[in-house]
Design brief:
By secondary structure, this protein is mainly alpha-helical. It has one domain: Orthogonal Bundle (Helix Hairpins). Helix content is 65%, strand content 11%. The protein is built from 5 helices and 3 strands. The chain has a 3-stranded mixed β-sheet, with helices on both faces. Helix 3 runs antiparallel to helix 4.
């Protein structure tokens, strides 16, 4: 028997054994299994996190569409060298912005212990914080901390979710 056949027979045997084991387990054992997810999570925090995830997904879809468009421009043989260079620079800038957004999110998580969503559009930075308390002092501290990451003046807005 060669090595490939031995692996195949081993996997089939394992699947067969697990299937038999699952069938022979009494139903009441399966019903008594406690969920592993902690019930201490509030519905509000789950909603806040899911809204942040929704914002991230929406932003990610737009970024992916823009990336695909730029990559198509770069690989298109009918485009001029100048158009390809512009598309490449935009692609580079888009990747840098994405990295900066993630860096700001990590900073807010580390310094202020809040989940956040960051979107940068040229000189505007929009930040959504997962917190129900609309604290002006906290917002000012976050704005100062984020502004310190940039040399040029940025227009930073904070929204509490």
């Amino acid at each position: 028997m060669n090595k490939k056949n031995l692996i195949y027979v081993s996997l089939i045997s394992l699947i067969l054994i697990l299937g038999i084991y699952y069938i022979t387990i009494p139903n009441n054992m399966l019903e008594n299994v406690e969920p592993t997810i902690s019930e201490s999570i509030d519905n509000t925090s789950t909603e806040e996190i899911s809204s942040l995830v929704g914002l991230r997904v929406e932003n990610e879809e737009m970024v992916i569409a823009k990336l695909e468009d730029l990559q198509n421009t770069i690989t298109d043989t009918s485009k001029s060298l100048e158009e390809k260079n512009i598309a490449y620079e935009q692609l580079k800038n888009l990747n840098q912005l994405k990295g900066k957004q993630e860096e700001i999110e990590k900073l807010i998580k580390k310094e202020f212990n809040f989940d956040s969503f960051v979107k940068i559009n040229e000189d505007q930075i929009n930040i959504v914080i997962s917190n129900n308390n609309h604290n002006k002092e906290l917002a000012n501290n976050i704005i100062k901390k984020v502004q310190s990451m940039f040399k040029e003046k940025k227009y930073i807005t904070i929204k509490f979710n």
